[in-house]
Amino acid sequence: MKKFFALLSAFTLVLISCSSDDSSNDSTPILVTKIVETYDDNSTWTVQYEYSGTKLVKVTDDDGYSLFTYQNDLITEIKHYEASELISTETYTYDSNGRVITYIDVDNVNPDWGTKETYSYNANGSISVNYYIGTSVSQTTLNDTGTISFLNGEISQIELTSGKTTTYSYDAKNTPLLNVTGVNKITFCGFEGEGIMHNIIEEDDSEDINDMSVVFVYNNNNFPVSSTVTYDSEVITEQFYYNR
Questions:
Q1: Which CATH number covers residue 80?
Q2: Least confident piece of the model among 74-83, 92-101, 205-214, 222-231
């Protein structure tokens, strides 16, 4: 899975301020603070999250860290660093309704590589996507097009004109990033879906390359505390930690 799935790992949260509503008696919003992934060879991967209120400030993993920029409640930029070197930059622009209309991902190490996605919102609730490639400065070569479909508020299918179709199934519980400001606006960027409200339990790739299934264990607040991910022939276990 893509960036936000990879970011779901560990941290001891620095919670500066909190505002949101929650179903429990404690009004503090539940935020994921750490996720530890363990692989077949017993190696681990840890990602750490820092917040200001419910906005992401910094995500740290075993290779480096990512810094987040917001405009009001919308994520506009994510910069990824390794050993303090800027590796890549993701940029998001929105329309007046707060819907993402452009997503650009550029390689800051190799200036000859960059991608751009533009989104058009259709009357039936689907999103049409144009996928461009180019350099870190300009991405103008149309490389693919696609359609993102939704069911019950979640991404149900991403279909590319080039032939690949990915379908998603969900549980009825809370995704770890549910209360993180702005994440729900960009879950489909990068031509790969993420759960908006609920957790993906099956991801079916029409090319049979990246099929995935997940079994979750939940806490009393209906957030995952652990999962077993079967991804192709690999099995990954995850432990989720929260601020409360």
A1: 2.40.160.190
A2: 205-214
Using DSSP's 3-state secondary structure scheme, residue 209 falls into coil
Does the residue 26 lie in any domain?
no
pTM above 0.90, yes or no: no
Please give the backbone phi and psi of residue 184, each rounded to the nearest 5 degrees, phi first: -65, -15
In a domain, 120, yes or no: yes
Residue reference for tokens 């390794």? 82
Place of tokens 């039936």: 124
Is residue 36, in this structure, part of any structural domain at all?
A: yes
Residue 7 lies in a domain: no
- CA torsion sign for 158, 149, 151, 174 is positive
pLDDT for residue 55 is more than 70: yes
φ, ψ at 123 (rounded to 5°):
-60, -30
| CB atoms near residue 49 (< 10 Å) | 30
pLDDT tens by residue, 171-204: 999 999 999 999 999 999 998 899 999 999 999 9
